[in-house]
């Protein structure tokens, strides 16, 4: 679901409603904090947009981004119906 574009990994997730979208974002935030890697996340009702790049590496995609993307995809499995 993630695609590489403009030196970022980008994805858009559609969930059932705002409550699920917010729960998904919260799950991502906890995982991101554990990995000390913090994504850009935008939420509009049931849609969550995510952008990943590594600021410490001049805002390019690194292994840190791929690792967090994997965590995000794993979390999304709980919501994807």
Give the overall shape, derived from the CA principal axes: globular
- Largest sheet composition: 4 strands, antiparallel
The computed structural class is: alpha+beta
Uncertain runs are: none
Mean pLDDT: 95
* CATH homologous superfamily identity: Transcriptional coactivator/pterin dehydratase
Helix/strand order, N-terminal first:
EEHEEH
Helix content: 25-40%
Describe the 3D structure.
By secondary structure, the chain is an alpha+beta fold. It has a single domain (3-76), classed as Gyrase A, domain 2 (2-Layer Sandwich). 40% of the residues lie in helices and 26% in strands. The two termini are 15 Å apart.
Keywords:
single chain; 81 residues; alpha+beta; Gyrase A, domain 2; four-stranded antiparallel beta sheet; 2 helices; 40% helix; globular
């Amino acid at each position: 679901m993630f695609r590489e574009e403009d030196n970022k990994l980008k994805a858009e997730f559609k969930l059932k409603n705002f409550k699920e979208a917010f729960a998904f974002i919260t799950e991502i935030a906890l995982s991101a904090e554990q990995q000390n890697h913090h994504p850009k996340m935008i939420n509009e009702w049931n849609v969550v947009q995510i952008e990943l790049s590594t600021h410490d590496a001049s805002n390019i995609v690194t292994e840190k981004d791929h690792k967090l993307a994997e965590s995000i995809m794993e979390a999304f499995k709980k919501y994807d119906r």
